[in-house]
Amino acid sequence: LTLELYIPGPVMLSAKVNEAMSKPVVSHRGDAFHKVFSNCHEGMKTVYGAKDGEVLLFSVPGTGAIDAALANTILDSDRVLAFGNGDFGRRICENAQLYAKVGQFKAVQVENGKGLHIEQVRKEIDEFKPTYIAVVHNDTASTVLNPLKEIAKAAQDAGAFLMADSVSGLGSTPLEFDAWKIGACASASQKCIAGPAGMSFLALNADAIGRISKQPKPRSYYFDPKKYLSYVQKNEHPNTPSLAGFFGLEQAIAELADEGMDARIERHEKMAQYVAGRLEKMNAPFFIEQGYRSRSVTGIKTDKSPALRAKMKQQEYLLSGGMGDHKDKVLRVAHMANMNEQGLGKMLDSLEASVKEVGGF
Ligand SMILES: Cc1ncc(COP(=O)(O)O)c(C=O)c1O
What we know:
The protein has helices at 15-21, 31-48, 62-73, 87-99, 118-128, 148-157, 206-214, 225-232, 243-259, 261-281, 305-314, 341-357; strands at 4-5, 54-58, 80-84, 105-109, 132-136, 138-139, 144-145, 161-165, 184-188, 200-204, 297-301, 317-318, 330-334. It is an alpha/beta fold. Helix 5 runs parallel beside helix 6 (148-157). The chain is globular, with a radius of gyration of 20 Å. Pyridoxal-5'-phosphate binds at residues 9, 61-63, 88, 136, 139-140, 165, 167-168, 188.
């Protein structure tokens, strides 16, 4: 049984990305790989809007890039403020706390479903006076999109360094790494970049690179960004990366470039509106405040989530439940990467029929 994936990553890949991943292996120190690496590196710099900043490429899941960022840019002297409004927000708080000194850390957990309101962010900053802020741009678990541009401005006004997880934001909604003066931003390939799972990225600005150089020693042997920063100059990865991952990523980036970054973002906005419109007609119980709804995944609150997912599976569609405590209380519909209105429309026809069969949401 081949299921059509309408889960928020990993996403279904284009035939060409799948083909690229089955290309013969080359040496990770040879010219052929240098070209692939350079295309991925330059491509991701464009995607991030990081002309001045540097972008590191990892052949590990997004969690690795996030951990690499927090481990190496949090200094012992930092006062770290982390925000969370979903399961990935909870994780970034836990992850940041690992590297913050005891007594110099605060996590602000906002109710699941609520966006991070900029007034609250500024108030927390005023009270705690952080030198380092960690936040999730688009929490794929709660399906909330946070106002990263405004949060970056608030961090800048307070003179604090900003680290953002944009694993499911990048590609679906504007993100301008240089212009917004973000310090570090981690993302991954298997969401709106429409690339393979297991590849991730970390954009670093000059401030981040300065912090890394100030660390008395790397906090991880593998995630030593000094190594990545020197190897990136040679179009190489410090170790033996997933060659298939790089081949697939190269093709996914080429497809993104063909579509155009603005067009991809606009397509995600349209898909999000289309899905919301269809779900509204079904009287779906939305739980995310207007203005904070993700452009790449929509969550609705329903105890029928397990029954609906089972019905959809019989029709060869895979949808997601919620995460953590919300597993069986939330239904998530993804609209990202190569998905389109036609495919989403068919899937939503099936969902509409399934909702009727189970007697409403
Ligand atoms: C917002 C967010 N952060 C982090 C991650 C972790 O990424 P990975 O599973 O690639 O480690 C995910 C994955 O779904 C995510 O959506």
